[in-house]
Structures are given as C-alpha cells and as structure tokens.
Specification:
The structure is a single chain. The protein is an alpha+beta fold. The strands form 2 sheets. It has a 3-stranded antiparallel β-sheet. It has a two-stranded antiparallel ribbon with strand order 3-4. The chain has 6 helices and 5 strands; from the N terminus they run βαβαββαβααα. The protein has a domain of about 90 residues.
C-alpha cells in the first residue's frame, strides 16, 4: 500500500450551526462536525456552505504553526488565536443558496496576502462560526478514527 497525501487542491464544505436552514440538535451538529456527514443535519432549506482547503500553502502553514505557542518566563503558552488564522488561510469560497438576495450573500474576498479578508473573518468571528469551521477542518484533515475510538484512549 502506498502513502496517499491530500492534494493542495482538495477541499471540503462546511455548514455553520447558525445557518437558519439547520434545525438539528447541538449533539447532532457536533456529530456532523466530527464526520462532515450532512445526512446528520436536519435542513429546512438549502444552507450556505463554506469551502475550505485541506492543505494550506507551506508559508501559511508555517505562519499558523509559529502563532500556536509563545514563550514567556521560561514557560510555553498556547495561543488560541492561531485557530482564527488557520481558518482564514483555509477558506477558499462560500456557496450561497440561490434563494439568498444578493445584498445578503456572504461573499469571499481575498486580503492582500490572498487569504480570506479580515472583513469576512470579523463577521464570522462575531457570529461565532470560526470555531465550528476550525473543528470541521480538524476532522477533515485529521486521522480518520471515530469519536468513540478516540474516547476510549
């Protein structure tokens, strides 16, 4: 068996819990984030989907990794803000349903560094969506073990 690495063009889609099309329980949504299986969601209408890349460009991945920790007073401290930057570098598009009016659409725009604009990220952070996108990304790029298997460890 050969090693198969994800391509730099591989993407996946994520639906945010706050989308009005989503009517499932928080437990069902958590299961969705763990598997990205849309059949776990109860959708009343077509939702907005965020398109994220699986593989970050090397410089972006290096920048995210460099933001994860800081050293102070001889101790290592985790800096959770790296998650925001990982999501910013991961989003490559937004699919809005046809029923959304043009003025209400979430539009993906690039910052000067070619990653998601700070304006869109501020909106997503304010709406509480970033951590869901981060968690979904970890599921998409992480080991393919079930949550039950991981809990038993």
């Amino acid at each position: 068996m050969a090693l198969k690495l994800p391509s730099s063009t591989d993407t996946f889609k994520v639906i945010a819990r706050i989308d009005t099309a989503v009517t499932c329980s928080q437990d069902d949504y958590n299961s969705y984030l763990d598997t990205l299986d849309e059949s776990l969601l109860k959708l009343e209408a077509e939702p907005t989907r965020f398109i994220l890349r699986k593989v970050l460009p090397y410089r972006a991945a290096q920048g995210v990794q460099n933001q994860q920790f800081r050293y102070a007073g001889g101790e290592v401290h985790l800096q959770p803000a790296f998650m925001l930057e990982e999501v910013r570098c991961s989003i490559v598009g937004v699919e809005n349903p046809q029923t959304v009016a043009p003025e209400d659409r979430l539009n993906w725009e690039a910052h000067s560094d070619s990653y998601t604009s700070f304006d869109l990220m501020a909106k997503l952070q304010g709406a509480g969506v970033v951590m869901d996108l981060y968690r979904a990304r970890q599921s998409a790029v992480g080991p393919k073990e079930s949550a039950e298997t991981l809990k038993k460890r």
